[in-house]
């Protein structure tokens, strides 16, 4: 083992068919099923024109400003994979740009998540490839390493293990632990159905929220008559 400079094999991955079930579900609904305690941070924003992202994680940990291991990850990623890069959140140098995004498209990847900067933002903004990043800069990357592939990483407190499910939409990025994906799919579908009923009630002019008054009473809130 050479910690800091190693490429490991991914031992398991969420099946692509299961991952794609989440493409019809808002990230917020999944997040609610995780007690609203997990997130990739507010700086990870959608940089593409396309739809939602969902796919098994191929993780990369790299020195800030260096993309050597990201280039290697592109060469070994499987169709549908989401390459998730922990670049330390440093925004000084871009870790990816137009050429790497084009390669990801040609390889049929599911998306790119960069905890760091990208460049060629105008081109990427028109791309169908899901791309999330923390910032934009014209300054390019170095290619010297070190770095690691298929190791556990963390982005703003959100831990991503190789093969976990990574999803994203306009509200941000979320990682679902491998063993919890089926349960979270069910809870997210229930949440989505419940919200659809609320929307239907609102459209019908029904605005009752008895739980609000019940909560205020439980808290001992004084309400002047």
Automatic annotation (TrEMBL):
Gene3D superfamilies: Ribonuclease E inhibitor RraA/RraA-like
Tree of life domain: Bacteria
Record protein name field: Putative 4-hydroxy-4-methyl-2-oxoglutarate aldolase
InterPro entries reported in the protein's UniProt record: RraA/RraA-like, RraA/RraA-like_sf
Entry-linked CDD domains: RraA_family
NCBIfam families on file: PRK06201.1
Transmembrane parts of this sequence: none
Cofactor list: a divalent metal cation
UniProt-listed Pfam families: RraA-like
């Amino acid at each position: 083992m050479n910690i800091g400079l190693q490429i490991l094999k991914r031992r398991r991955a969420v099946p692509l068919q299961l991952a794609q079930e989440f493409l019809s579900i808002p990230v917020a609904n999944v997040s609610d099923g995780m007690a609203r305690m997990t997130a990739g941070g507010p700086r990870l924003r959608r940089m593409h024109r396309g739809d939602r992202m969902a796919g098994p994680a191929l993780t990369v940990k790299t020195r800030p400003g260096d993309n050597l291991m990201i280039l290697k990850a592109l060469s070994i990623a499987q169709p549908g994979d989401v390459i998730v890069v922990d670049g330390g959140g440093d925004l000084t140098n871009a870790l990816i740009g137009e050429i790497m995004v084009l390669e990801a498209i040609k390889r049929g990847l599911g998306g790119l998540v960069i905890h760091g900067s990208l460049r060629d933002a105008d081109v990427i903004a028109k791309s169908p490839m899901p791309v999330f990043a923390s910032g934009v800069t014209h300054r390019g990357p170095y290619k010297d390493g070190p770095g690691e592939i298929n190791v556990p990483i963390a982005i703003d407190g959100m831990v991503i293990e190789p093969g976990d499910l990574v999803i994203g939409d306009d509200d941000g990025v979320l990682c679902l632990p491998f063993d919890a994906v089926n349960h979270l799919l069910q809870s997210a579908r229930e949440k989505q159905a419940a919200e659809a009923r609320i929307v239907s009630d609102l459209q019908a002019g029904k605005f009752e929220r008895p739980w609000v008054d019940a909560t205020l009473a439980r808290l001992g809130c004084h309400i002047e008559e």
